Amino acid sequence: MRVLAIDASLRNTGVAIIDANNGKLRALYFGTIHNTSSLRSSACLVAIRDRLAELIRSHEPDCCALESVIYVQSYKTAILLGAARGAAILAAAENGLPVFEYAPTRIKQATVGRGAAGKNQVAFMVRALLGLTETPEADAADALAIGLTHLRSQEAARCGIPAERQI
Predict the structure, then answer these.
(1) pLDDT band at 69 (very low <50, low <70, confident <90, very high)
(2) What is the pLDDT of residues 81-102, one digit of tens each?
């Protein structure tokens, strides 16, 4: 199974492609879609969708996983995060990928072992779990953690434990 994992954000969307073959996990790609502050929000959404579509074409994932909506104190931030998630979901849906979402605390729990883990802990653990030679940037590390969470969830589902919500 190959998963496209996304940590959606308007300015810095973390992206990862993880392949699970016979129990062996391998990060095929990870990085961040950077959109400068001078770029209009609408142009950022197009850039996110286009880059994700490009990655889908080149890596041919089987599904997409992303972080579910998080609580934020600012309605403006919530709207921008929702728009970025929408661009990501659209890219996946246009390419026929089923989309799954995971709560932030579940992602941290599955990756680090506790739901209140910090970004540095997540980055350290994904590096160790995937045998990476470098510690990924925070947004890319979050995407890798989302991908690992999905793969573990799918393995648990094969053992009879219900999987996370598909959207």
Answers:
(1) confident
(2) 899 999 999 999 999 999 999 9
Single-letter residue type at 157: A
Q: Tell me which CATH code domain 2-158 carries.
A: 3.30.420.10
Task: List the one residue out of 102, 115, 114, 113 whose CA is nearest residue 143.
Answer: 102
User: Any idea which residues carry the catalytic annotation?
Assistant: 7, 67, 139
From the centroid of its chain, how far is CA 71? 17
Regarding pTM above 0.70, the answer is yes
**For the chain, how many helices (H) and strands (E)?**
5, 5
Distances in Å between the Cα of 109 and the Cα atoms of 77, 103, 116, 121, 153 are 25, 10, 8, 11, 12
Residues above pLDDT 70, as percent of the chain: 90
Distance CA 9, CA 164 (A): 21
Q: Where are the domains of the chain?
A: 2-158
SS3 64: strand
